[in-house]
Amino acid sequence: MRSHTAKLRQAFHIQLDPTAWPTRGLSPINKLLTAAILLGTVNAILETEPLLAQPYQAMFAAVEFWLGSVFAAEYLARLWSIVEERPPGETAFGRRLRFIASPAAVVDLVAVLVTLVPFFGINVMALRLVRLLRILRLGKLGRMSAALTLLVNVIKSRRYELFVTLALAATVLIFGASALYWVEGDLQPDKFGSIPRSLWWAVITLTTIGYGDVYPITAVGKMIAGVVAIAGIGLIAMPTGILASAFSEAVRNR
Length: 254
Known about the structure:
By secondary structure, the protein is mainly alpha-helical. The protein has two domains: 4-144, Voltage-gated potassium channels. Chain C (Four Helix Bundle (Hemerythrin (Met), subunit A)), CATH 1.20.120; 157-253, Orthogonal Bundle (Helix Hairpins). Helix 2 (28-47) runs antiparallel to helix 4 (57-81) and helix 9 runs antiparallel to helix 12 (219-253). The protein is built from twelve helices and no strands. The chain has helices at residues 4-16, 28-47, 50-53, 57-81, 92-100, 103-116, 124-133, 146-157, 159-184, 189-192, 195-206, 219-253. The longest helix has 35 residues, at 219-253. The model has no long low-confidence stretch (mean pLDDT 80).
């Protein structure tokens, strides 16, 4: 017979771990946590607007404090109940230690700290960084979203193909930057005077953004720019096709 404490711990684990929830969708507690994450993100975004920060400072602070308390309680509850899924032979301490070191738990801990740190008094620059880091709470949604989990698995399954595409893109970037440095380095030293300077042009050309702040003026330079631009269209399309086909296959298998 399991003790009352063990039964309560198992109940918390079922509520907090989406993979342990027996029915489709999220548990009631995880639904509330999802709403709290979205509320905290909106609150952090609106708090950066000076027209809203001053008049509603007390309201923003109250929301952050209560959300911080909720996230702290969630973290402690997860830490307490995580032993319900430990493999045979692993101690409760070892499972909790492994949980603390996991990426998901690190995101949880950061979410708690960046919510509560401002209440202990920090300087303006540090406060601005903390406000920005609060958006990391969106990372907590990853464990609650089947779509995000599926997307992560798709990326892992196609990591070799994506790496090859990235290597090809890096090759084209270096080739384009080196060629423009050789052709127009003397004519436009401020823009193509070195390969690192030319890399900025190569990046915005390869990604088809083309801000227009840096561009070649010679015929040879324009030919090279055309080659890089056309290569960019293909290289940008490649990972899109790889991920689209892999995602479609994963959805069919599921």
